[in-house]
Amino acid sequence: MNYRHSFHAGNSADVVKHSLLIALVRALQLKDGALTLIDTHAGCGLYDLHGDQAQRTGEAMQGVMRAFADADPLLDDYRAAVRAVNGAGNEGAGNEGAGPLLYPGSPRILAQLLRPQDALIINEKHPEDAYALRGAMRGTPAAVHERDAYEFWLAMLPTRTPRGLVVVDPPYEQTDERARITKTLAAAQRKWAHGVTVIWYPLKDRSAHVHWKEKLRRLGIAKLLNVEHWLYDADQPGIYNGAGLFIVNPPYAFTQGLPPMLDALREALAPEGHRGTLKAEWLS
Q1: Residue 208 included in any domain
Q2: Helices (H), the chain
Q3: How many CA atoms lie within 13 A of 192 on its CB side?
Q4: How many distinct structural domains can be found in the chain?
Q5: Which tens digit of pLDDT belongs to each residue from 90-134?
């Protein structure tokens, strides 16, 4: 499955991923100790929702635009993060009923969350995207790399600070992407067993995903949480059906606040005529 992010920016998967990422980092920041935030597949960093690629799919209409039309205060932090990249010249979000013109990728959202003691290290292998990423991150303290994501992931571990978070958000262009994630996660756990890792994935074929989930379960990770969002009440063959996250070592404050957040996201993002499911389960 090819999932180049510029075609899907601001879709329902982004709303869930970025809402939970904000909550996760804030839960980690309840302790004063420094954090190192690492993004292995950073993409372009900032996306034009009125650009050709985003307009070609129109997926933002079922994602960020729904979140902006929703009034649940549990989504306020997410909406604030999107508004932060929409200045006076891009303030579509400031008009009643309108949505944002620009959408922040994970590295721009992580940069907003940094405290003075925290560090942000991001990576993008594709040269054109890496060039765009450097422009998008100008003015932030992010260190930008242009390397193989899986080599970069392991090279950054253990982090220089006692605590850290790794975000793994690949485009799933390669047929062996899931196998590489599984292998690299196993190696990362040997180097950095106490670290927090977030792995995003799209959902298309339920049976293939169940098989991958079982392989991850066999790694024996003590705290492995799976958050899964199925958009439709029954699988829609051959199309994108939703997305999920594997979260290694989520902090207690995050997991305690998760149920109402998932309910709010499911309600905001349910397609017309569908209730959908958005739930979390431990794979440990």
Answers
A1: yes
A2: 12-28, 52-57, 64-69, 76-83, 106-113, 127-136, 149-155, 177-191, 206-217, 252-256, 258-269
A3: 24
A4: 1
A5: 545 444 446 899 999 999 999 999 999 999 999 999 999 999 999
* Residue keyed to tokens 């995003």: 200
Rg over alpha carbons for the chain, rounded to the nearest Å, is 18
Burial 63-85 (b: 16+ CB within 10 A, else e): bbbbbbebeeebbeebbebbbeb
Judge contact between 70 and 268, C-beta under 8 A.
yes
Q: Looking at residue 71, what is its pLDDT?
A: 95
Residue 200 covered by a domain: yes
Is 132 among the domain residues?
A: yes
The tens digit of pLDDT for each residue in 206-218 reads 787 899 999 999 9
Residue 222 is part of which domain span? 5-59+105-282
Q: Is residue 85 part of a domain?
A: no
Q: What is the CATH number of the domain that holds 138?
A: 3.40.50.150
- Report d(CA 247, CA 72) in Å as an integer: 24
